[in-house]
Write a structure and sequence with these properties.
single chain, 317 residues, alpha/beta, Nucleotidyltransferase, domain 5, 3 domains, two-stranded antiparallel ribbon, Mobile element protein, Transp_IS110-like_N, DNA binding, Transposase_20
């Protein structure tokens, strides 16, 4: 069979638009159609798809099982790549061609996709949905809290959402406890002051799912890494890259707020605030350190958190 090919796929709920050296084609987004199409590809071919809710998972999973190398791309990256090439139109056919061109040029720098285990996928889904419900609850409270005539119905609605969140939490605990190793690791991460149940669950799911080389890779994957903006003699302001899961960043920031009030972290937080850092900057620094510590614990099975081994917490004596 011919040598490996580079293929771009624009994914929709019902169909896949495919750009390959064989030309443009469209198939239904069903297992039978996908498997029949994959049989015509050389083994080891490279396939790029955008992350599109859950609609990309079927073709990505089946392609990996068929021996293909799959890249799941951030839609923002493909959009910027297209704009950088000067493309003005946006259609499914154009998008598929851009994805094909991107992976052809950049595949050496991309991380190949690996399907998640069913329980990890369910955990991730529940975590995303929980984050969505929490966000809607906060938006409702903010939008209606000053309208007195709606106070009663608002309280009832928020109470119902709290009940829903509690039920999601219960399902998350049930799923996590069904995986004895993961549950044990999550409880170990919770020995770090500031890290709670929701964050520990997300972190062990991430660490189990993604092969991260070191703590720097973990920080970059979550999007807490500072992005340089320098040119010539100008040293621009650093901003977070904000790649990866926004929900996990939100949870880590909340953890940092909780940690800043603990005996272990309070002196360090005060030191940051007394220097050149604002409240938000200080909390982001702590959130980043919490992530690094959690990753270090994950890499050392059986080890519990010890503040005396964390250099910045030596202030506690």
């Amino acid at each position: 069979m011919a040598s490996e090919m580079f293929v771009g796929i624009d994914v929709a709920s019902r169909e896949l638009v495919i750009s390959s050296p064989q030309g443009l084609t469209t198939i239904t987004n069903t297992q039978a159609a996908i498997e029949a199409w994959l049989m015509g590809l050389p083994a080891g071919s490279h396939i790029g798809v955008e992350a599109t809710s859950h609609y990309h998972e079927l073709v990505a999973d089946r392609a990996v099982l068929a021996g293909m190398v799959v890249y799941v791309l951030n839609p923002r990256d493909t959009r910027h790549y297209m704009l950088g090439l000067g493309r003005r139109s946006k259609t499914d056919r154009v998008d598929a061609g851009m994805i094909q061109r991107l992976i052809l040029a950049e595949h050496a720098q991309l991380r190949p996709y690996q399907p998640a285990a069913a329980v990890h996928r369910q955990l991730a889904l529940l975590q995303r949905r929980r984050g969505s419900v929490v966000g809607h609850r906060q938006a409702l409270h903010k939008a209606l809290r000053q309208i007195g005539i709606l106070a009663t119905v608002l309280d009832q609605t928020l109470a119902a959402l709290d009940t829903l969140i509690a039920q999601i939490d219960q399902q998350l605990d049930t799923l996590l406890n069904s995986q004895e190793g993961l549950a044990k690791e999550a409880r170990r991460l919770e020995t770090v002051p500031g890290i709670g149940r929701q964050t520990s669950t997300q972190l062990v799911t991430l660490f189990k799912r993604v092969d991260l080389a070191n703590s720097d890779a973990a920080v970059a994957f979550v999007g807490l890494d500072p992005r340089a903006c320098d040119s010539g003699q100008k040293s621009g302001r650093r901003r977070l890259s904000k790649r990866g899961s926004a929900e996990l960043r939100r949870l880590l920031y909340n953890c940092a707020q909780a940690a800043a009030r603990t005996v272990a972290w309070k002196p360090y937080y005060a030191q940051l605030k007394s220097g050149k850092f604002s409240t938000t900057q200080a909390l982001v620094i702590i959130a980043r350190k919490l992530l690094r510590i959690a990753f270090s614990l994950w890499q050392q099975p059986g080890i519990l958190f010890n503040a005396q081994k964390v250099a910045c917490l030596g202030l506690t004596g």
